[in-house]
Amino acid sequence: MKKHLIKLALFVSISTSLFSACTKDKSVNNNSVLLYKNKEFKDSTLSGYLLGGSTNEVSKISYSNNHFDSLYQNHEWINIIKNENLDLNNITLTSYFGTNIKVASFPVIESVRNTKEIYYNVYISNNKYVITKMRIEILNNHNRKISITSSNDLVYYQLEINTNNRIGNWHVSKDVPLRMTFNNIPINTDPRSNSIKSNETMYDCMSRCITQVCGSDWVCASMCAVAFPSCVAGAAIACAIN
Q1: Closest CA to 184 of 103, 104, 99
Q2: What whole-number distance in Å separates Cα of residue 39 and Cα of residue 236?
Q3: pLDDT tens digits for 78-104?
């Protein structure tokens, strides 16, 4: 009887150790909590990217997440970390249908107390990164003006969202360097989302697509109710995939 109890105690001890090790490994490897999963739209079409229906999942992740393994050594990112007070406890990671590009959003802490919110959106694919800055400003007419720029404030595109959640005043100024950086992006096989014409620049593509999808200002409604910064950032992906 005593031998059986010893064996049982040993089995329980080993099982507990293995379970503890597995649980720890899972926590270290993932460092994420799922906040949202899109079970309704699943839209990888052109309009899905521009308006927010292409968002797949949104997770809250740790700064130690393996998505950032190469970002820590990125010189542009090192300068941002030095000069900006980023909220590293509230990072979200957003995935989209039809592409392996993901966007991590980092809030700037001081900005949440002002009329202008600031986020750094990092596009991620295969350990390559494109870093952008997003400013959200409340205008006198209560519209939200969203500006997507480089980290040194070179404007890529801007838009406004009114109090009825309608989108207008799109202005595309310059290419977001997604296609240049992520040159190994998988081709989306959905023919409805093949928005890039032959030899068309990203700037031309976005300008054309905005007219093609919405026609005119204040027609299209934004679907960016969850993870707003990375949802709006997804608009650039419409012209980054083939």
Answers
A1: 99
A2: 23
A3: 999 999 999 999 999 999 988 889 999
For a pLDDT cut of 90, what percent of the chain falls above it?
A: 42
Q: Where are the alpha helices (DSSP H) in the chain?
A: 2-30, 46-51, 75-83, 178-181, 202-214, 228-233
Question: Which residues lie closer than 8 Å to 80 by C-beta, 6 or more apart?
Answer: 86, 120, 131, 151
Let me know how long the chain is.
242
What was the pLDDT predicted at 65? 94
Measure the CA–CA gap between 77 and 82, rounded to whole angstroms.
9
Gap between the Cα atoms of 15 and 17, Å rounded = 5
Tokens of 146: 């969203």
DSSP state of 90: S
- pTM for the whole thing? 0.80
Q: What is the pLDDT of residues 146-180, one digit of tens each?
A: 999 999 999 999 999 999 999 999 898 988 998 88
Amino acid letter, residue 57: E
Instruction: List the one residue out of 57, 79, 71 whose CA is nearest residue 129.
Output: 71
Short-list 168, 141, 146, 142, CA closest to 157: 146
Query: Distance (Å, rounded) from C-alpha 141 to C-alpha 162?
Result: 8
- Of 35-44, 65-74, 134-143, least confident by mean pLDDT is 35-44
Bridge partners for 221 per DSSP? 166
Please, is 158 exposed, middle or buried when counting C-beta atoms within 10 Å of its C-beta (0-12, 13-18, 19+)? Answer: middle
Q: How many Å is the Cα radius of gyration of the chain?
A: 21
